Task: structure prediction
Amino acid sequence: MTSVDISQRTIRIGSRKSQLALVQTYWVKKELESHFPEIDFEVETMSTQGDKILDVALAKIGDKGLFTKELEVGMLSNQTDFAVHSLKDLPTNLPEGLMLGCVTKRVDPADALVVHEKHKDRQLHTLPDGSVIGTSSLRRLAQLRHHFPHLQFKDVRGNVNTRLAKLDAGEYDAIILAVAGLQRLGISDRIHQTIAPEISLHAVGQGALGIECREGDTEILKVIKALEDPETRDRCYAERAFLRELEGGCQVPIGVNTKIDEDTLIFTGMVASLDGSKLIKDTISGSRTNAEQLGKDLANRLRNMGADEILAEIFAQIERS
Ligand code: DPM
Result:
C-alpha cells in the first residue's frame, strides 16, 4: 500500500457555524496542531437543516441527522476530511461510507437549570406553581414532569445564546441547557443548579465530541485518533448501542448515565412516556470490553420491563401528528 505523506496535505475540517460548534471545532484544531505541528488544518463552516429550521419543535422535524447531514455531504464529496460534532447530535446509524473516528474526553454530561433573575433564590422544587420551563428536549420534559408536576413546559429553539436571550426577556421562568455547552461558551456563571442524575439522566453522548470521517481513510483516522479518550469512548459506545437498540433518537425520552470503575462499566438507562407518568429505569454492569453488548442488554431489559409499550405509544403518536 502506498501511503500518502500527510504533512504535504491540508486537512479540512467541517463545522456548523454556531458559536458553540466553532468553539468545539477550533478546540479540536488547536489540539491536533499541537500533536501534528507539520500539518495544516483549515476549518470550513456550513449551515445544517437544524440551524435553518428554527420555528418547528425539534421532535417534530425528526432526527435523521438534522445537525449533521450537510457536513456529511461535505466529507463524501471530499470537500472536507472530517467533521466535529457534539456527539449527542450524531445519529447512531451513520451514512454509508462514513464512520465515528474519534470520541474526545467528556466534560460534565449533566443538564443545568438556568433561571430568570427574578427566581435567583429558587431551585427546581421551589419554583412557583405553573412556572414555565423552556426546553425542546422530550427527555428533559418527561423526566422533569415526572418529578415536578407543578411546572409547565414550553418549546424553545435556537442556539444557546438565543435561548438565554429569550429567558432574560421574560418568555420563560427558567430553561434547561447542557452544562457542557455553557462551560464551553465560557458562561458557566449562568448555571443555577446542576440537575442530579436521580432527577434527570442525560442524553446519549452528551458532553463529548464525536469526530466523523470517511470509512477507511486511514491517514485521517490516524490523525484524529490522537484525541480519543478510551474511557469516554467505551461509555459512549455503550450508550449509542443502547439508543440504537431502542431505535430512539431525539423523538423519544431516553436518558442514560455511565461510569467506569477500574474495568467495570456501570450503566443506568431510562425510557419515559411523554407525560412523565411512566418511567422505566434500570442499571447494568459488566466488563467495559463488552461496552456495546452491555448497552444492548440494558435496552432489552428495559423492553421486557415495559419500555416496548411506551415506545410503541410514542411512535404511534408521531405517526398521527
Ligand atoms: C439533542 C438534544 C438537544 C440538542 C436533545 C436532548 C437539546 C434540545 C433542547 C439531541 N441535541 O438533549 O435530549 O434542549 O431543546 C445540543 C446542545 C449541545 C449539543 C445544547 C443543550 C451542547 C452540549 C453537549 C442540542 N447538542 O443540550 O443544551 O455537547 O452535550
Observations:
- The CA atoms of residues 124 and 263 lie 36 Å apart.
- Residues 58, 86, 88-89, 135-137, 139-140, 177-178, 180-181, 203, 206-207, 250 surround DPM (CB under 6 Å).
